Amino acid sequence: MKAILKIYQLVLIVLLLSFSACKDALEPEPIRKGGIPGVVENFSSKEIPGGAIITYDVPEGSDLRYVKASYILSDGMERESKSTVYKNTITVEGFAKAGEYDVSLTAVSVGEVESKPVTVRVTVGTPPHLLVAASLANDDNFYATFGGINADYVNSAEGNVVIRVMIKDAHDKWQEINAEYTRAKKGRVRVRGLDTVEYTFGIYVRDRWNNKSDTIVKKLVPLFEREFDKALFRHIKLPGDTWERHTGQGRSAELPVLWNGLHNQNGSIFQTKPSTVIPQHFTWDMGVKARLSRFIFYPDIPPSERNVYTGGQPSVWELWGSNNPNPDGTFDASWTLVGTFHATKPSGLPLGQLSTDDIALARKGEDFEVEGKVEAFRYWRWRTIANWGNVTYVAMSEFTFFGAVEE
After folding, report:
1. 3-state class of 224 per DSSP?
2. Element (H, E) at 285
């Protein structure tokens, strides 16, 4: 029996060796090898953020397949870029900082036959991750806001980067709390949900080659948010304002119903005369110098909910603030544009068609965040730019504002 097993083992070994030999014989060989290509000549370079574009004369020869650039990145890894024979440029990128670098250019023909390499010295521009980090280092772009912080960045090179936000814990260790991947030209990274105590924040930027900026460290205290007291609000009538109510509305429907707290109730609606024009605006005194963080807008919800997102209900509007408005009512330098806002219809359905989500949002009220660092203002203007029904009047129910009072 043992003799039989040994025979089987020998047969198996022979078969395996035969298969291996056959496999080696079947490995594809290059059909042919081309001649040694000529060297890359007459080159020049142009810097770009984090890299350079090299222009050259493509070597002659029907066997030429591509030109290869070889260079070393900051982590010590060698990187290659390739360009076809149909182009006379090649891009090198991924450098950690601006400066001069050596790049080796090689022409490659059929069968991976390479020419003699030539070295070109290129100048590399400031990489995108460092450009973004520089924008974040500006105090005006990295600041405390209501319940957290904002970090406004500029990515002029439109590089693929990730912006990482960290916070120091009780043990003085960094903990990541947000990461935003972007190639947008500009944007904002937000952190919310924090208490109104001092935190140590850190931000750094990394690119897709794992190059990292230095960490920008800043101590900030998130701002406390409160609802502004509507009992202090007062209607201000300035020349050019539109405040006269629709004749079909009762006297109880004057403009101050917008802050009476009775949203979504029939009769508590402000509607201007149909003979007015769009855009139109009105002015009120908040009673205190208010730095806005956000507001809730409640549209006009008639007894029949099928009329939501139609008629004179604002779809686009502006908020303006002032501490010393010109008594002639003009939009001059005494007024500052705080923001432009667009109402959302969740379903996206055409005019006159509604979903349950549409009605639910209208009843709940739509929440709008005020962007950026906003100055505190006492006097405010609501300027309706467009409405859902493309009509010449405005109809709305209520608004509620939040933020901080400044003395």
Report:
1. coil
2. strand 280-299
